[in-house]
Amino acid sequence: MGSELLNAMQISASGMRAQGTRIRVITENVANANTTGNTPGADPYRRQTITFKNEMDKQLGVNQVRVDDIDTDRKTPFSLKYIPDHPAADEKGYVKMPNVQPLIEMMDIREAQRSYEANLGMIEQSRSMVQRTIDLLRQ
């Protein structure tokens, strides 16, 4: 019973680490939502994306969540905003804006937070079960 609970705690901890990294990536996106280029026609900040993978922990014999890749979103186009006096404005006065949509980032961060909290809840439940088992053995 003990090793299964410890494995569950390890799996949940790996999920928490992965979601913590996801939150960091999303936070960087939000922080750079208005970061433009410095020269006419220069590309602005590109939104970062994160992917996960299951990885077998051979020592524990269980699958754990790991960050697979942090990449830039090259599919979502930049928007153009008319700011003729901006240093990055093209000859028509338009500036390329980052492909970050704050509303989507906020939804993603809420999902990551919920997942993080769910993993934390599993660790707390496992810890509580271990403690109850210890208490029973003491009697």
Detail the topology: elements first, then pairings.
Elements: H1 2-31, E1 48-57, E2 62-72, E3 79-82, E4 94-97, H2 102-138
Antiparallel strand pairs: 1-2, 3-4
- Helix-residue proportion: 40-55%
Mean pLDDT: 92
**What global shape is seen?**
elongated
Give the helix tally. Answer: 2
Identify the notable features of this structure and list them briefly:
139 residues, two-stranded antiparallel sheet, two-stranded antiparallel ribbon, 2 helices, elongated
Describe this structure as you would to a colleague.
The chain has 139 residues and is an alpha+beta fold. The protein has one domain (2-138). It contains two helices and four strands, in the order αββββα. A two-stranded antiparallel ribbon has the order 1-2. 16% of the residues are buried.
Q: Can you summarize this structure?
A:
The protein is 48% helix and 21% strand. The protein has helices at 2-31, 102-138; strands at 48-57, 62-72, 79-82, 94-97.
